[in-house]
Specification:
The complex is a heterodimer of chains A (about 525) and B (about 325). Chain A is an alpha+beta fold and about 525 residues long. In chain A, about 50% of the residues lie in helices and about 20% in strands. Chain A folds into 3 domains: about 200 residues, Multidrug efflux transporter AcrB transmembrane fold (Up-down Bundle); about 70 residues, Alpha-Beta Plaits (2-Layer Sandwich); about 210 residues, Gyrase A, domain 2, CATH 3.30.1360. In chain A, α4 crosses α11, α12 packs across α13 and α13 runs antiparallel to α14. Chain B is built from 12 helices and 4 strands; from the N terminus they run ααβαββαβαααααααα. The chains are: A alpha+beta (about 525), B alpha+beta (about 325).
Chain lengths: ~525, ~325
């Protein structure tokens, strides 16, 4: 008897604990937003968000067919933002050459922008092993002087004489370069491997503007291209930017990738993206790497060399990895994501960024809320009118249920959209149905002349199989919808699954506990208000 | 104590042939119509025209005003969003004539202008910019939604085969499939716009119908154990009658909610609410008149262990000559 009471109170405590968890994310989310709001992410259709208009970037050379480029970009961007999370974004082509991306809410817009814009053009190139670029520096400096660019006025500008020691390559033109003290030559220091040049950090902008001058571009030897590295290289007390001279033709590009997984190297604790190549590319890559054993290979992403080019130790076929050095793991995840989704056919620029209101429109949402309230009142009236006190218990459980469902949505950070709300409506129906099933059973048992207490117990017991079977199969359906479907279908499935789980808890355990408490207090009860 | 339909004893199954006819009348013309014309997909699927307008600061215009104007001008279901500022709006609209498609950008912009002129008065707004927009939803969504439903059917079959018996699972899935067909036909008859939200409604119906069917089947399972002498025909009738109060109440409450949406929630949500209301109706109907008789037919064709299914018709009704329902899905 007492045990039963304890169990009853324990069960009745259980839902209370769960509801207390609900406001928890409120405080958790409050930290960076000043607006106090329910921590549920509402979708674009309900709340609006950020509107980005993107165009093909023509500044770095014209793109011949921008309509085609934007169509391919649309597919890539859609895949990327879909993988970004269940936020149900809008990706839409407008006009001929424009792409609209709309993201709900304002959270992490910058990261999203980065992912949308990321060209993710991946190339593997062998560095300039024969030092053709270095041999060309004197001629470039001459041309620069002719164009009126002066080298540094004074100082120990004997650049190549100060080679950093590790230079094992034949320094053929070294002396000439130092004597002429050219504008470019004086900025470049030979790095630790062939084709690597170091530029002091403070000179980076000067050097960058120099190598982008038309005279320099014209004089670059055939078969060589220049790329900056992503990381700063500390060397003694100073830090340097690395400039790489590489072969102008990549061995393979990102199109060859079939898989890309972020990983953390257990030994070095570095972030790494492991990749797999297609069969055909694997062969090409294998042949090229076999020919270049002992050479260095630069991994170039969006025109920047990633880390220091590794030496090719042996032939590499289908599998390899990109080391990101000490960069955070999230970078590896993002990189793997964009590599998987494919490269943009052309770089995109954001031409417009605005906030937009909900796509369903405030008016529709308000009307929907009004209708929803009327609907709920109708349900309450029907339940209480038909089942009287028991109906009231069910309504109370329903309130708890709503709290639990939204709490679950908030806790998992799902985006609630209109199809999601449809899922919620359905799960409310299911929650009410579970109570109806139980009450009808209790009535039947009472009709068979059972005592109140037995009738309640039996009612719950018999209704259980129907509730479990119907809920489990609906949940399974929802689960498959989540696995197979995209965007809105997934949103629907998520709310439905959470709703079913919450309804199992409230409709069954909570109502049962209410009953137990009620019967405990009134042990002499002869007729049940059901 | 208020009790509706307690101890009801209607012979539901007797009317099954009428039900077959009714459902065939519902489905077949709809599917025939679908062969000739496509469903009316919303702007989210087809694309349309995006129009940016600016309204004067002095006389604020709300989205509700704009929607009223567009609805009056025949541009239903347009998407109206505030765009950056209070006075800037973006409208995504599409002419209802299917021929216009995404091509009639000019025409749509003119239609919007006419609608706004009529309601707000010319000069009360300025069209900043208009352009064609592509579909919001990729083609793959349609295919994937159906694929998802298909897989979920398989999983349901397996689960019900474990918990009940494969015959029950097959009957439940066929009943749910029937509901998808009738709902699609319903959408076609009313020429409702198929938007993402309507897709959500169809998915909801799948869940609802399955739920409802299983509740009746649960009773059938129980009664089959309890009453060893009755045949399946009687047990099905008994189970449907026993669950009748529950059915009435559950469907009544859910229907009350969706009807509230139909009448109060406005133009944008109405297609969704209509489809849901119809779905509840057809889900209930199919649980009684499709799932139960189909179970009987399956039991007759492939009798279970106690072979009561085979006894179902002996001495009661002649063999059904043309099982319209079991043939209908094969046609699709």
């Amino acid at each position: 008897m007492i045990l039963g009471l304890v169990a009853a109170s324990a069960i009745s405590l259980l839902p209370r604990h769960e509801t207390q968890r609900v406001p928890d994310p409120v405080t958790g989310r409050m930290k960076d937003t000043t607006v106090r709001r329910v921590p549920i992410n509402l979708g674009l259709d309900l709340r609006g968000g950020v509107h980005l208009a993107l165009e093909v970037d023509q500044s770095k050379g014209p793109v011949p067919d921008c309509a085609d480029a934007i169509q391919r970009a649309e597919r890539v961007v859609r895949t990327r933002v879909d993988e970004f999370g269940t936020t149900e974004p809008v990706v839409q082509i407008v006009g001929r050459c424009r792409l609209i991306v709309e993201l709900p809410g304002e959270k992490d817009v910058n990261r999203a922008k980065g992912i949308v814009q990321r060209t993710a053009f991946l190339e593997f190139r062998i560095t300039d092993m024969r030092n053709v670029f270095r041999d060309a520096i004197p001629a470039i400096d001459v041309a620069l002087r002719a164009a009126g660019v002066r080298g540094p006025a004074a100082g120990p500008s004997n650049a190549v004489a100060r080679l950093l020691g590790q230079d094992t390559t034949k320094a053929t033109a070294g002396a000439d370069t130092s004597n002429q003290r050219g504008a470019l030559g004086s900025l470049l220091f030979q790095g630790s491997l062939a084709g690597e040049y170091l530029v002091p950090e403070e000179q980076f902008e000067v050097a960058d503007s120099l190598i982008n001058r038309p005279e320099v571009k014209r004089l670059l030897p055939r078969g060589v291209a220049l790329f900056w590295g992503t990381q700063l290289v500390p060397q003694g007390a100073r830090t340097y930017h690395a400039l790489y001279a590489v072969e102008d033709r990549p061995i393979i590009t990102g199109e060859c990738l079939t898989k890309a997984q972020p990983r953390r190297d257990p030994l070095t604790n570095q972030s790494v993206v492991a990749f797999t190549l297609t069969h055909r590319c694997g062969r090409i890559f294998g042949d090229a790497t076999a020919r270049h054993v002992g050479d260095y290979m630069a991994i170039i992403l969006d025109g920047r060399v990633q880390g220091q080019p590794p030496v090719i130790k042996s032939e590499i076929r289908n599998e390899g990895q990109i080391e990101l050095g000490s960069r955070p793991f999230a970078d590896a995840q993002d990189l793997a994501l964009v590599l998987r989704a494919g490269a943009l056919p052309a770089p995109l620029t954001i031409v417009e960024e605005r906030t937009i209101s909900s796509s369903l429109g405030e008016d529709s949402i308000n009307a929907g809320i009004r209708a929803g309230v009327v609907g709920i009142i109708l349900v309450v009236v029907i339940m209480v009118g038909y089942y009287r006190l028991s109906g009231a218990l069910a309504v109370a459980a329903l309130a708890l249920y709503t709290l639990l469902t939204f709490g679950g949505l908030a806790a998992f950070g799902f985006t609630l959209t209109m199809p999601g709300l449809a899922g919620f409506v359905l799960s409310v129906g299911i929650a009410v149905d579970a109570n109806v099933l139980i009450f009808e059973r209790i009535r039947e048992e009472l009709q068979h002349g059972k005592l109140v207490r037995t009738a309640v117990d039996e009612g719950f017991k018999h209704a259980m199989s129907a509730i479990v079977d119907s809920n489990v199969s609906t949940a399974l359906t929802a689960f498959i919808l989540y696995l197979v479907g995209t965007g809105p279908v997934q949103g629907f499935a998520i709310t439905l699954i959470i709703g079913i789980a919450a309804s199992m808890v409230t409709a069954v355990y909570v109502v049962r506990t209410f009953y137990m408490v009620w019967l405990q207090r009134r042990p002499d009860l002869v007729t049940l208000s059901v | 104590m208020l009790r509706l339909f307690a101890n009801a004893n209607y012979d539901f199954i007797k009317w099954r042939r009428w039900a077959y006819g009714l459902t065939a009348i519902m489905i077949v013309p709809g599917l025939v119509m679908l062969l000739s014309t496509r469903l009316n997909y919303s702007i989210e699927f087809t694309g349309g025209t995006r129009i940016q307008i600016a309204t004067p600061k002095a006389k604020p215009v709300t989205t509700a005003d704009l929607r009223a104007a567009l609805d009056a001008g025949g541009l239903r279901g347009a998407e109206i969003q505030q765009y950056g500022a209070d006075t800037a709006f973006q409208i995504r609209a599409r002419l209802s004539a299917p021929a216009a498609g995404a091509g009639g950008t000019e025409e749509t912009a003119q239609a919007v202008a006419r609608a706004l002129d009529a309601r707000l008065g010319a000069g009360q707004y300025k069209i900043v910019h208009y352009e064609a927009v592509g579909p919001k939803v990729g083609k793959e969504l349609q295919g994937k939604a159906f694929l998802a439903i298909f897989f979920s059917f398989i999983v349901t079959l397996v689960y019900l085969a474990i918990r009940f018996e494969w015959r029950f699972g097959l009957a439940a899935v066929l009943a749910t499939f029937h509901d998808i067909l009738t709902t699609v036909a319903f959408i076609k008859y009313l020429n409702l716009e198929v938007s993402l939200v309507v897709v959500g409604a169809v998915l909801t119906i799948v869940g609802y119908s399955l739920n409802d069917t299983i509740i009746i089947f649960d009773r059938v399972r129980e009664n089959l154990r309890k009453y060893r002498r009755q045949n399946l025909y009687e047990i099905l009738n008994l189970s449907i009658n026993e669950t009748l109060p529950r059915s009435i109440l559950t469907h009544g409450t859910t229907m009350a909610t969706t009807l509230a949406l139909v009448f109060l929630a406005g133009e944008v949500i109405r297609p969704f609410a209509l489809v849901m209301t119809f779905g509840i109706f057809t889900g209930t109907f199919s649980s009684i008149y499709i799932a139960a008789p189909v179970l009987m037919l399956i039991e007759k064709r492939w009798p279970g262990q106690d072979a009561r299914g085979a006894r179902a018709f002996t001495g009661r009704a002649p063999e059904p000559a043309a099982p319209a329902v079991s043939r209908a899905p094969a046609k699709v």
